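Bit of a strange request maybe. I'm writing a small parser for structure token strings and I need a real example to test against, not something I typed by hand. Could someone generate the tokens for this chain?
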Amino acid sequence: MNRQNDCSFYDKIYAAVCEIPRGQVATYGQVAAMAGSGGAARAVGNALHRNPNPEVIPCHRVVNAQGRLAPNFAFCGDEEQQRRLEAEGVEVVDHHVDLKKYQMR
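Reply from user aminoacidic:
Good idea to test on real output. This should exercise your parser:
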């Protein structure tokens, strides 16, 4: 994939993340599928780590397939991710979100 395609795919990832409603989460794989490239969960992580506008693109709403928060959340660690999720009404217990309750469908 060349750099131009990376940017285009990242734009699709950012657009998909913006579709996650407040108070809900999506998994990296789910975001990859929404961006048209299921199986590219790692690419989603890379894109979110480079999030150009975290106040607009709510990457804190993305968790792993088990509901675990990102230990290397790009913007001040998983405590900040937890704080942002809880501010939206998402319950976080032991760095996990209950996907049955909060996952976007």
